[in-house]
Design a protein that fits this description.
Length: about 230
């Protein structure tokens, strides 16, 4: 099974913060799949100071997440960063409302499932964007020969990831609901939006706003039912 790898780079963190700031004319909400040390959640937090957006971040239970949640408290970002623990295919079902930014950065082989849930449940706002990192899998989405320098011990992992991500990218392109843009930045960043007119056609213009002052999570913040 393919796992997850790295937090995104400081450069990408800067870019996403900047992106949030530039798109801050209205309140916004961020959903993240894959918290890890909380680095990207902090980037969303910084970028949404003006709008005080809620940031919902999902990850698996374990020591890492216990520490990350402690850290969120210590640095005082737990006012807006809500951590939800459990397998994302399950926890995504607890998440309600709409998000302007959805960042999929967990187990890459499940990105198709995560995207499907986000589209099907209308978690992605009408003008929102889904961002996916590592879409080049270190160049290996194009083929093993495209990265002769890949670390030998990690090569099998990245080659398998390359094949998986390539298939996912093709399936995104074939999806009639969405527009897809693969940016050749860092390890490859894909941005997905609703195809123009699709949402209006689907919901007869009954869009709902992402932030209403209530949590986007159905009462649970740790996957155990405790608040
Ligand atoms: C690449 S790291 C996230 C990095 C983080 N977004 C950042 O940039 O700082 C991926 C995370 O996804 C989590 N993950 C892997 N499989 C998962 C699953 N099925 N459900 C939820 N989280 C998962 C891992 O535990 C890991 O912490």
């Amino acid at each position: 099974m393919l796992g997850s790898v790295l937090p995104f780079s400081p450069e990408l963190a800067d870019r996403v913060s900047e992106y949030c700031e530039k798109h801050s004319e209205h309140e916004s909400a961020v959903l993240e799949v894959g918290t890890f040390t909380g680095f990207s959640a902090l980037a969303w937090y910084e970028g949404t100071k003006a709008t005080q957006a809620e940031i919902v971040t999902l990850d698996l239970p374990g020591d890492m997440m216990d520490k990350t949640r402690e850290f969120f408290k210590e640095v005082g970002v737990d006012d807006r960063v809500k951590s939800v623990v459990g397998p994302a295919v399950e926890t995504l079902k607890e998440v309600e409302s709409e998000f302007d930014i959805i960042f999929l950065d967990a187990d890459k082989q499940n990105n198709g499932t995560y995207l499907e849930i986000c589209l099907e449940k209308r978690l992605l706002a009408g003008d929102g964007v889904v961002i996916l990192d590592n879409m080049f899998a270190r160049g290996l989405t194009m083929g093993p020969e495209f990265n002769p320098h890949a670390d030998k011990s990690r090569r099998p992992f990245w080659e398998a990831m390359g094949v998986t991500i390539r298939k996912l990218n093709v399936s995104f392109l074939e999806d009639p609901r969405i527009d897809v843009l693969l940016l050749p930045l860092f390890d490859g960043v894909t941005m997905i939006k609703w195809k123009e007119g699709y949402v209006e056609g689907k919901v007869n213009g009954e869009g709902k706003k992402a932030v209403d002052g209530k949590s986007k999570v159905d009462g649970k913040q740790d996957g155990s039912g405790k608040k």
